[in-house]
Amino acid sequence: MQITVRIERYADQGRCVAHSDGRVVFVRFALPGELVRIELDEPHERKDRFWTGEVVEVLEASELRVPPAWPLAGPLADGGGVGGADLVHVSLPGQLAWKSATVTEQMRRLGHVEIPDVPVERIAGDEEMQGLHWRTRIELIADEQGRPSMRRRGSHQRVPIDTMPLASQALLAVAQEHGIWDGGLEPDAHVRIAVPEPRDIDTAADGTALHNTAADSTAVNNTAIQSTAADNADVANDSALRSAVGENYAILVDGKLAAGSDQLRETTTVGARTFHYRVSSAGFWQMHRRAPLVLPQHVMTLVDRVLQGRRSPVIWDLYSGSGLFTLPLAVHVPDTRMLSVEGAAQPVENARRNLGDMGIHAEQVKALAGDVSAVLRHVSKSLAHPDVVVLDPPRAGARKEACRQIAAAHPAGIVYIACDPASLARDTAALTSQGYRLADIHAFDIYPMTHHVETVALFTRKDFAR
């Protein structure tokens, strides 16, 4: 069933809101102000309070609309539907405006805080790359013919692909060398490719020699992106890029290492100091090629704002993964003592090893594996009263109990890194009810072409002297 609606505003999950026959309609691939014809998702006869649908024709377009930079990820009506880039129809400035509106609205509606529009920062190099080539990890599924593919939304159909425009150029170089796009996989095989960004050629990767074929296009259109398979082949043949990657990559098929290294090396720089990490090829790490550089630097700035020069602080790093924030936090201020907590055992093993490689011992950083809320019930007296808490929870957020426990420890400041604005907003309400105030909030567009956004918020006690 198709209907015509006027789009009213942004909603969540990359959708916009319209109304029809008294019902709310959540619309994919729309923009506020547009008049569009949409196909309602089945079953459209249901009596739910809302419907969902997708644009099939744009009758009056927003000035922020652009031709999809990756048509396969665009609307089903245009032959798309593979997912992974639900804002592919929106200009880069429009994407920042969308994400700013989403974060701000969620904080006001669910967090109950009245704030100005939240700024969203674009990552260096992304504009030159036109929002593409940022993912250092991708996952694919083999179709019935053994070709790499992605599932089409709303069906079991698998669409074969011969490139992945969101993948970093280093990843594409590895994929090309190993013939990933040629097929030959077992049907239904799950493929994961992880390629840490080689930092020694980071300047080139951000906008000059390594991607001239893409950057020289002043406008990205369907024809240009359809030719990216050839462009990617050019990139893959760049010996300097492939040499810089070396063996620091992993191709996993059905969870087993098929090529590369099971343990990967990642680096970040905070201030003048570089930190080295070993992480599991199958584990979590920030996907954007520059996120491990941008986020720790911003977090440390906020931590300094709280500590105000204090020496020998106690810091908690919760949901700490393999130690992206733990390492710089541990050495940023002399005589720091830390508690880090992560739910999964493997990342904690990685974090302990990464700390040991820096000469940081368990007496200084107590790295524990377990449920955060459970661990916080039994914190030793020496670590029970942190000056600062840093937390980077999963998409569901920290939730009320963990927020209550953090507030009960009376830290002067809480630095919260969030990948979901709604979860951050709900936890904001929990923290403000416990005597904290939102002192700073800033978002980073580390997921171009998608509705996702990374937000970093600082909370301080209401009696904290700024």
From TrEMBL:
<dbReference type="Pfam" id="PF05958">
    <property type="entry name" value="tRNA_U5-meth_tr"/>
</dbReference>
<dbReference type="InterPro" id="IPR002792">
    <property type="entry name" value="TRAM_dom"/>
</dbReference>
<protein>
    <submittedName>
        <fullName>Class I SAM-dependent RNA methyltransferase</fullName>
    </submittedName>
</protein>
<comment type="similarity">
    <text>Belongs to the class I-like SAM-binding methyltransferase superfamily. RNA M5U methyltransferase family.</text>
</comment>
<feature type="binding site">
    <location>
        <position position="286"/>
    </location>
    <ligand>
        <name>S-adenosyl-L-methionine</name>
    </ligand>
</feature>
<dbReference type="InterPro" id="IPR010280">
    <property type="entry name" value="U5_MeTrfase_fam"/>
</dbReference>
<keyword id="KW-0949">S-adenosyl-L-methionine</keyword>
<feature type="domain" description="TRAM">
    <location>
        <begin position="1"/>
        <end position="57"/>
    </location>
</feature>
<keyword id="KW-0489">Methyltransferase</keyword>
<feature type="binding site">
    <location>
        <position position="342"/>
    </location>
    <ligand>
        <name>S-adenosyl-L-methionine</name>
    </ligand>
</feature>
<feature type="active site">
    <location>
        <position position="419"/>
    </location>
</feature>
<dbReference type="InterPro" id="IPR030390">
    <property type="entry name" value="MeTrfase_TrmA_AS"/>
</dbReference>
<dbReference type="Pfam" id="PF01938">
    <property type="entry name" value="TRAM"/>
</dbReference>
<dbReference type="GO" id="GO:0070475">
    <property type="term" value="P:rRNA base methylation"/>
</dbReference>
<feature type="active site" description="Nucleophile">
    <location>
        <position position="419"/>
    </location>
</feature>
<dbReference type="InterPro" id="IPR029063">
    <property type="entry name" value="SAM-dependent_MTases_sf"/>
</dbReference>
<feature type="binding site">
    <location>
        <position position="319"/>
    </location>
    <ligand>
        <name>S-adenosyl-L-methionine</name>
    </ligand>
</feature>
<feature type="binding site">
    <location>
        <position position="392"/>
    </location>
    <ligand>
        <name>S-adenosyl-L-methionine</name>
    </ligand>
</feature>
<dbReference type="GO" id="GO:0070041">
    <property type="term" value="F:rRNA (uridine-C5-)-methyltransferase activity"/>
</dbReference>
<dbReference type="InterPro" id="IPR012340">
    <property type="entry name" value="NA-bd_OB-fold"/>
</dbReference>
<keyword id="KW-0808">Transferase</keyword>
